[in-house]
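Quick one - inputs below.
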Amino acid sequence: MAWRRKQRDRIFPVDITPMIDVVFLLIIFFMVTAQFAKLSRAELDLPREPGERSELAEPDTIIINLTRDGTLIVNDREVERDALASMVQEVLEQTTDDPAMAHVLLRVDRETDSARLNELVVQLQAIGVGRVRVATEVP
Amino acid sequence: MWTRERKDDRRRERITLNLASMIDVTFLLLIYFLVTAVLAEPEDRLTPDLQVQTGEAAGREADLEPQVLEVLIADGQPIYRLGSIVMASRAELRERLDALPRSAGVFIRVGDGVPVGFAVTAIQVARDLDFEQVTYVPHSP
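Output:
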């Protein structure tokens, strides 16, 4: 009887609270990051290039997705071409004083006709964006 | 006596609390998120400057002897053109660009109809060759 009680005492004092805390923190982290990724990144076949392979000093100010058929998607929402400039301008005004210093990430499908990208670039240049980041898929 | 029994009951209740199913679900969720996070394709980026000039002015009148690489469609195929030299492959493009001075930078003038992937290859090659400035110029006729 006494031996059994000893055995039980030896098993139950194992405190798994910190482990459960850590596991829940990890779950919350993955849920939140997965949600953000889904919101800002549409499913596209990006150009397969290694990119600049350097660490980014500053995060993207805005992410613009351009699909193969020319649809523009910003923050998981389809945006009309005419409405894009004012939308980008609004975001840039909120985040930076100088649009030329903004970090606009263009995620463009590799099969998209460059005429669509050209139109987008002209629009961005018109509102003062002087440099863009073009997303690539690391092969 | 009564209190001792009650204490024993409480201890039994506490001990019988079974966390196993919750931990199972929690670990399943954790594994699911880990696996889906790993499946996301790794992305990087290229950072060309932008210059909007249409027609023949792009990279000619505004700049002193610019190095202009054109990306366009010829006979239904995307090609690269540097002056009168026409290139169809990445290797050829790299070889020709490698012969140019880096300090002058390079203008990549992209015509309509070219798949974006082809234009991005030109930016990548120029970046790999350490041109000081790589400028994307949209070129619509």
